[in-house]
Fold:
Amino acid sequence: MREIVRRHLGKVVAGAAVAATATAVLVGVNLPGSESGGSGDRQANAAAAKQDAVAKDGVVEAAPEEGAKGVGSDPLTDEEIERAEKASVSGQMRSSARDVEGDRGPQLLSTNLSEPEPSDSGAAPQRSAEVVYYDYKKDAVITKTVNLETGKVDDTVTTMNVQPPPSQEELAEGARLLIADPLGKGLKKDFKHATGKALAGPDQLQLSGMVFRKETVKRVPSSLDACGKHRCLQVVTKVKNGPWIDTRALVVDLSSRTVGRLG
Structure:
């Protein structure tokens, strides 16, 4: 029993020594027997450690001014985006295509930096932008590749039965059609319950959503059978600064401007 007590006391003493050493390191105090163990040094070290433990105030610096042109794989600048979108729409395309509201001109979906193709000469490739449109008159995706150095369209690709992610303008139009359709009765009722106000337009909602792909659903109603060829969206709605409203069972066909229900 005495041997057990001695071993226990030995562990306690050793543990206390380790704790004291760790504390001394933390606050910068010298242990007895060190070279400089004066009270003045201990107080100075403790004060320095305490000061270092307090985080310094952060400084907010203004963002650097954006240049007119990016370099290499830099994101497109605002000026490059504006120039690419302006160069990508010809007079014929503007007059023949239709946007999501049926107005003249194609619906802009996105503008992004093109993936550079390796140059045979080893020189750095010129920066290009890919501008993607949807033509609701032909139900076609039109992709324009614009050379940002020359300001000219290097390539145009028109694709059918392809559905890129929706733009905010399309989501807003989809919500507008939902609100006006009899199938949107539940959406308006839930909004009224959450806010006490009537839902009159998409600007009262926070919108997100996705392209509806009918191959992911077992049973598709006949009203949505053209989705894939047509531009169809599932619009996700949320009260601004409020709850989500479940509208996942409703699908908006933007091409035919109709609403269908799943299940």
Observations:
- The first strand starts at residue 107 and ends at 113.
